[in-house]
Design goal:
- The structure is a homodimer.
- The first copy, chain A, is of the alpha+beta class.
- Chain A has 2 domains: 5-121 and 240-263, PSTPO5379-like, CATH 3.40.1640.10; 123-232, PSTPO5379-like fold.
- Chain A has 7 helices and 11 strands.
- Chain A has helices at 10-18, 46-55, 123-131, 137-140, 173-183, 231-239, 260-263, and strands at 33-42, 62-65, 91-95, 98-103, 114-120, 147-153, 163-171, 195-196, 223-228, 245-248, 254-259.
- In chain A, strands 1, 2, 3, 4, 5, 10 and 11 form a 7-stranded antiparallel sheet that branches.
- In chain A, strand 3 and strand 4 form a beta hairpin.
- The relative contact order of chain A is 0.24.
Chain lengths: 266, 266
């Protein structure tokens, strides 16, 4: 269906998704609101996972978590009347770290021992960058941002270990500098980039073959600029080979009731 | 004993403390290095405690945690060759949330199920403020900063609940403005103040009777400026009435190998 995001609220979008009237990606929905990644795993792994996120918080910024095992919501200020089993427009179900299924809801497979984590996505800083008049290529080209597994190790915690995953946006140097300045304001939304320029410096062999997401055009005079990505947490989750975990489908984010401007540092 | 902090390293100070050649407060030791609060609790409460800290991270900024139950160290980049049982200059032992004992080390009572958390202290931003030529009254008066339990509720998680605890430093308005600017750079070190001016606005009845720490002089033309304090985590820990927990004695901080400048946002 067509959507007219600018006229709607996060709640009305979540209800539309709950009713499965919309099953697509959420980029551009309800400008100004934080969209989050979802990671759901059994409580017995939740402490180590949260420690992993805390130890690697530039890539894995936890916005909120469910406080009781099995809870289907998050604190109310994050999303009013939330049902995590149905209020995202697409889910990925993993068994022992392997993708098992992609589904529209997870009502039938929800477990009493699940703890859910919402991690900040890159959509917030992309919006701020675009508001400054800087093009974000993956949005222009209607793609998921290209993401790459680097050779930079994260701090491991128990079963959870991964190299850093980065997302990439090509920019002219002056725009990259302005984007760095803007991202200073969002330390809890991945903050500033971790690298620009030569992809090989961080172990990326072929910039046109991203590990996740889609390749985007890099124009003459542009450099690739790399941000720490929440996909790092997903890779760590997969590497842990837990019997049962859930994430959102790429680009099918949780639309929260929190404004980007509320988490801006200044 | 006398100490000459400017000539020493965090490691040499920790060894001096391990040998119990020094049992005093650590303010002013090894300028430029982060000093941290310590909270140690049984693993069964660690997930909810870390979730509490994450949900209230301006007051409870977790710098690092022990990744294995019973571990006596933290990740090596935090503090080389650390022994958490002896490398702080004073400990408080709590039973069921009540202060039970103050001791020089906790070697004899360490448990295999303890998880340890290091939380950023206010010493880092105090140093940055002083480096800008602004007086920090509690340092001038050789006191612990005054702290107050406010009427602002934190987000509770399971057993862990508390109102926000704040520390207070009196300043002239122009200095307060500069201090706010400086603290923008340290979002993981309690960040900017949460209030200035009328103490009653945040439920503080008598500014001269702090809940913790010592009262300090407020001079003509100064306003009290309030920062979120890690003491919030200690109060939540006490409120949880856990059988056995440990913190540092007030002002007897863990001296880390991390530079303040490494966590400065810009």
């Amino acid at each position: 269906m067509q959507h007219n995001a600018s006229l709607t609220t996060p709640y009305s979008i979540r209800m539309m998704i709950r009713n499965e009237d919309y099953t697509g990606k959420t980029s551009g929905f309800v400008p100004g609101m934080i969209q989050a990644n979802l990671i759901v795993l059994p409580q017995q792994y939740a402490l180590e996972f949260l420690q992993f996120c805390q130890a690697n918080r530039q890539s894995c910024p936890v916005l909120a978590s469910s406080k009781v095992a099995g809870a289907t919501d998050l604190p109310e200020h994050v999303a009013f009347d939330l049902d995590l089993r149905s209020d995202l427009s697409g889910y990925r179900v993993f068994k022992h770290g392997q993708l098992f299924n992609e589904v529209a809801n997870v009502k039938d497979i929800w477990r009493d021992d699940y703890i859910s984590f919402a991690l900040a996505s890159s959509l917030s800083f992309e919006e701020s960058i675009r508001n400054a008049g800087i093009e974000v290529r993956n949005i222009t080209e209607l793609k998921n941002a290209p993401m790459y597994l680097t050779n930079i190790p994260c701090e491991a915690v128990g079963k959870f270990a991964s190299n850093l995953v980065v997302s990439m946006r090509p920019m002219k140097p002056a725009d990259a500098i302005r984007a760095i300045q803007i991202c200073c304001r969002y330390p809890d939304m991945h903050g500033v980039p971790i690298h620009f320029g030569n992809p090989a410096d961080i172990g990326i062999k072929n910039i046109n073959r991203p590990t996740f997401g889609d390749p985007v055009t890099i124009k003459e005079g542009e450099v690739p600029v790399f941000w720490a990505s929440s996909a790092t947490a997903e890779v760590a989750m997969m590497n842990a080979r837990i019997d049962s975990t859930i994430t959102q489908r790429p680009g099918h984010m949780l639309i929260t009731d929190i404004k980007n401007s509320d988490v801006s540092l200044f």
